[in-house]
Amino acid sequence: MHAPAPASSAPPSDQPKAAHPYLQAPPLRRRMACWLYEGLLMFGVVFIAGYLFGTLSQTRHALDNRHALQGFLFIVFGIYFTWFWAKGHTLAMKTWHIRVVDAAGQPLTQSRALLRYVLSWLWFLPPLLAAAPFALSGGEIAVLLLGWVAIWAILSRFHPLGQFWHDALAGTRLVHFVHTRKPQS
């Protein structure tokens, strides 16, 4: 027998709706560990894409075609994340048992995954735009960037479901999932 829940004095409309446990955000610590692991995996993507770009463009010096390389990497990252998010998760997300779904808990469409990719640049663009008018050193930009990442992550605590704000804007959410192995025949 379960004891009855205590009655609340607030009207039902004033209480936040409890989401299905499946749709709850994983703990912030786990999401940030996944984010860090994703960054490490992206070094491989950057290496392969940079090698491909350098070979195809016959770039001999790292600073030649820098803006074209940055544009190329933006497109490669977009393809990478859009592809994997539409499948439910990247390798890092699978490792940390995190899945990305739409607001209703359904798999993402390619267009919603692309929207999430574009909005995920809110992790980086504000500090980079703030640093642009100043002649800051690489270390100062790194401090500014890391400070913003910490602020952006902590701001998820103010979302009703604990989601990152770029997910709220994109109509997506990160959820915990348990990967089950298929029985071997």
UniProtKB/TrEMBL annotation:
Entry protein name: Uncharacterized membrane protein YckC, RDD family
Keyword terms of this UniProt record: Cell membrane, Membrane, Transmembrane, Transmembrane helix
Top-level taxon of origin: Bacteria
UniProt feature coiled coil, ranges: none
KW Transmembrane (keyword) present: yes
Keyword Transmembrane helix set for record: yes
Pfam family name, one: RDD
Subcellular localization(s) per the UniProt record: Cell membrane
UniProt domain RDD: residue ranges: 26-171
Organism whose genome encodes this protein: Giesbergeria anulus
